Each structure stands twice: as C-alpha cells, then as structure tokens.
Amino acid sequence: MMAISFAGLSGLLFGVGLVVSHMTDPARVLGFLDFAGHWDPTLLWVMVGAIGVHLPLRRLIATKQARPRYAASFSLPPRSGIDTKLVLGAAIFGVGWGAMGYCPGPAIASATTSLTALTTLAAIVVGIALHERTLGESARPLRLPRMSKLRFRDVDG
Amino acid sequence: MSPRQASIVHLSNALMFDGSFTVAKVGVPLLGGALIGLAASLLYATTGRIAGVSGIASGLIGGQKGDRAWRLAFLLGLTIAGTASLGPCVADHTASHAPIAATWLAVPAGLLVGFGARLGSGCTSGHGVCGVSRLSPRSMVATMTFIATGAITVQLLRLLGVRP
C-alpha cells in the first residue's frame, strides 16, 4: 500500500514538473527540436534540472539503501549493449515525437485537457500494445522457414 | 567583436531567449525539471522502479496481475497533475514559434512513439532522464538518436508543407 501511495505521489510530482516546465505544450517541445528554425531551449533546461537532481540522488539512494523502502529489490534494466533494437526503436520514437511533439508522459498528463493529446495517447497505447504482441517478452518467437528447405511441409523453424 | 565572441554571444542569447535573461525563462524549466528528477528519485527510493513512462505504461498494458497497482497509481497521479494543472502558470511572453502539425498526424505519430519507445526500451523519461542519470551508454545513445530523428522530422514536415 505504501509503495502504491508513493508511486501515485511520484506520478503527481512528475506531472507537476511537466506542467510547470511547459513540457505539456507540444509547441515548446517541437521548438526544442527545431534546431534549424527558431530554437527554443526550454527542454534542454528541463533535462538539466531533472538530471541535475536525479543523478546525485540516485547515487545517494544506491549507497544509503540496500533495497527500496517498500519493495524487495531495485529494478535494474537488463544489461545489454547498444544494439539494433535500441537504435531503431529510438529512431522510430523520435520520428513520432517530432511529428506531434508528444511523448508518453505529456500525452497522459494532457489527456483530459486536450483532444489532440488524447488522440495521440490512444495511438501510443496501440503502438505499445502492438509491440508487446509482436516483439514483446510474452510474444511467441518468430519461426521462419529456412530458405534452402522451403517446402509446404517440413517447416519446423 | 571577434567571430568567436560573436558566436558565444549568439549561443548565450539563444539559451536565454534573445539575450533577455529572466529568471522565468531559465529558472522555471529548471525548477520543473528538478521536480521531475525528484519524482524519479522518490519512485526509485520507495519502489525501486524506474520512472520511464513508456515502461510503466507497457507493464500495465501487457504485464502480470500483481504488478499493475503501482503503475496505475503513477499514471493516475500524472493524469491528475495535468488535469488540475497544479503547476503555477508562469506567463511567458515568448510566442510559440513552432506551430503543431495537423491533428490527423496524431495517429501515425502516436503509433510510432508507442512502438518505438518499447522497441528501444524507453522514452524521454526512461532514457533521457533516468538512463542518462545512471550514465548508461545505451540511454545516451538512445537519447541522442531520438533527438536527432525528432529534429529531422520537424524539418522534413516543414519541407513537405505539413507544418508551416
């Protein structure tokens, strides 16, 4: 229960941070990406502020706490290198982001106040679900027939 | 003024909106960012979870039963904050210079954002804030990549006449 409450509080704070810094305004976000046009550095300052706080705090937490306050262990991202999925995924994400100026956080925060945000969010959810179904951990591995032995029978992957 | 001095002035002007430094133009985004960083730190300290919105959402969409409550709570908190617009409204006299593209773009854009974020294992909060704060090379590469393709997309859509 405490974990859930703190997760809720964290989400609330996160959202306030997004609103205060104008990150829920897609025009501001697109202004940052508009390097060749009239550049808006707002997002840069937001990142500086966020990393400036989170980087040292994260280190402090890791040294002071053997485990999270209300959970068994710290969740760590899987250790993998810089692979095609990472770069391709980020590239694709960037295209969508640069098209509307919405990424998941601001879309969720603005969903009740902007129809455009709500529409984008619905599509984001579908996009996430699509990935989960096709390439996610729970999806079945792709079974492709070997090209040299391609027959209508004996296709055993 | 030498060319080098001129370019430094130009950059500092750009960072501070045409040379008119105000606390609001730099301080407000810094403060908002600090709140985001604080939120991510709070989540990590209490639940051990990473404040990557696409990851939190994907776990809600396709995850296990016992793992959903905290995710829902986080996203609900996010929604409530946005709805209430609890942040102080700081009047910013700088006009938005990048008009948003037409609304029909929302569907393909959202699909790319959702799919791409999961394929790349993170978004602006997951990689950009949390991953970079961990000094993760993966996240730094991902962040630079999506900023690059985002910037290219902005120019491309302008070129195609989708946005002014």
Describe the structure concisely.
Chain A has 157 residues and is mostly helical. Chain A has helices at 2-20, 26-33, 42-64, 84-100, 104-110, 115-134.
Write up what this structure looks like.
The complex is a heterodimer of chains A (157) and B (164). In chain A, helix 5 crosses helix 6. Chain A is mostly helical and 157 residues long. Chain A is globular, with a radius of gyration of 21 Å. Chain B is mostly helical. Chain B is built from seven helices and no strands. Chain B starts with a helix and ends in a 5-residue tail after the last helix.
The proportion of strand residues of chain B reads: under 5%
Q: Report the strand count of chain B.
A: 0
Helix content of chain A: 55-70%
Oligomer: heterodimer
Helix/strand-derived class of chain B?
mainly alpha
Strand/helix succession of chain B: HHHHHHH
User: What is the beta-strand fraction of chain A?
Assistant: under 5%
Largest sheet composition of chain A: none
Q: Which sequence of SSEs, written as H and E, runs from N to C of chain A?
A: HHHHHH
User: Kindly state the mean pLDDT of chain A as a whole number?
Assistant: 88
Please tell me the overall pLDDT of chain B. 84
Large-scale geometry of chain B: globular
Cα distance spanning the termini of chain B: 35 Å
Alpha plus pi helix count of chain A: 6
Number of helices of chain B: 7
**Structural class, judged by helices and strands of chain A?**
mainly alpha
- Identify the most extensive interface between protein chains: A-B, 118 and 110 residues
Summary keywords:
heterodimer, A: 157 residues, mainly alpha, 6 helices, globular, disordered C terminus, B: 164 residues, 7 helices, 0% strand
